[in-house]
């Protein structure tokens, strides 16, 4: 990550604009923090709130072109968990506008449908999310997770 | 000039900054070797 992804200008600008960035070496002196977050392999990257609570995590290398969409979804999940649904929706829509070919696009579609439902209490966005996932990402785990929404009337 | 990520290594300070700025924290555990 340090050699390829973080030096990429789009990534550096994105991190600076959107996050408070913290890097911890996986050394013996940081063992307590590693245990707290269940770190057993690197790179392990987490999106935390100010209380230190985890809202999103990844393990393994992420190339520069996937970093921004992946952690836009991470930021959206932070908004979502805080009940800031308008901000969560805007961030997820940004993923789909800027990075529709990203591997996290299905996750963005899933949570966009859920955020719309939570805001409106209208279940139709859940069904729309399922239809979009089934049409474009039939093999995605997020399509499987959305499967019950196929029972909702259009 | 190329921009670089300005990492900090103190999570407690980062939490204070996150609270003041209403930004999330990106916490990266990495192997220095």
Question: Main sheet of chain A?
Answer: 2 strands, antiparallel
End-to-end Cα distance of chain B, whole Å, is 28 Å
Shape of chain A: globular
- By oligomeric state, this entry counts as heterodimer
Structural class estimated from helices and strands of chain B? alpha+beta
The topology string of helices and strands of chain A comes to: HEHEEHHHHH
Strand content of chain B: 15-25%
**pLDDT < 50 runs, ≥5 residues of chain B:** none
Mean pLDDT score of chain A, rounded? 97
Report the radius of gyration of chain A as a whole number of Å. 17 Å
Distance between the termini of chain A: 44 Å
Major protein interface: A-B, 41 and 27 residues
Task: Count every beta strand of chain B, where a strand is a DSSP E run of 2 or more residues.
Answer: 1
Query: Number of DSSP strands of chain A?
Result: 3
Taking pLDDT < 50 over at least 5 consecutive residues as the criterion, the unreliable ranges of chain A are none
Strand ordering within the main sheet of chain A: 2-3
Helix content of chain B: 25-40%
Average predicted local confidence, pLDDT of chain B = 94
Structural class of chain A: mainly alpha
Largest beta-sheet characterization of chain B:
none
The number of helices of chain B is 1
Explain how this protein is built.
The complex is a heterodimer of chains A (154) and B (33). With 154 residues, chain A is mainly alpha-helical. Chain A contains seven helices and three strands, in the order H-E-H-E-E-H-H-H-H-H. Chain A has a two-stranded antiparallel sheet with strand order 2-3. The longest helix of chain A is centred in the middle third of the chain and has 18 residues, at 64-81. Chain A is globular. The mean pLDDT of chain A is 97. Chain B is an alpha+beta fold. Chain B contains one helix and one strand. Chain B is flat. Classes of the chains: A mainly alpha (154), B alpha+beta (33). The A-B interface holds A 1-2, 6-7, 9, 11-13, 15-16, 18-27, 30, 33-34, 37, 39, 42-52, 55, 71, 74-75, 78 and B 2-11, 14-19, 21, 23-32. Strand 1 of chain A pairs parallel with strand 1 of chain B.
């Amino acid at each position: 990550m340090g050699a390829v992804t973080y030096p990429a200008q789009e990534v550096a600008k994105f991190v600076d604009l959107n996050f408070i960035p913290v890097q911890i070496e996986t050394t013996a002196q940081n063992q307590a923090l590693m245990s707290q977050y269940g770190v057993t392999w690197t790179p392990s990257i987490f999106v935390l709130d100010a209380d230190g609570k985890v809202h999103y995590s990844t393990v393994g290398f992420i190339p520069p072109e996937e970093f921004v969409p992946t952690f836009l979804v991470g930021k959206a999940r932070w908004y979502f968990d805080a009940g800031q649904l308008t901000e969560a929706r805007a961030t997820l829509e940004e993923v789909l506008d800027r990075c529709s070919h990203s591997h996290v696009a299905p996750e963005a579609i899933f949570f966009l449908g859920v955020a719309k439902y939570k805001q409106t209490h209208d279940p139709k966005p859940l069904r729309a999310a399922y239809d979009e996932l089934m049409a474009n990402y039939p093999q995605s785990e997020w399509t499987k997770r959305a499967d019950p929404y196929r029972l909702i009337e259009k | 000039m190329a921009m670089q990520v300005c990492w900090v290594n103190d999570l407690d300070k980062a939490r204070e900054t996150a609270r003041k700025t209403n930004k999330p924290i990106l916490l990266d555990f990495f192997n220095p070797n």
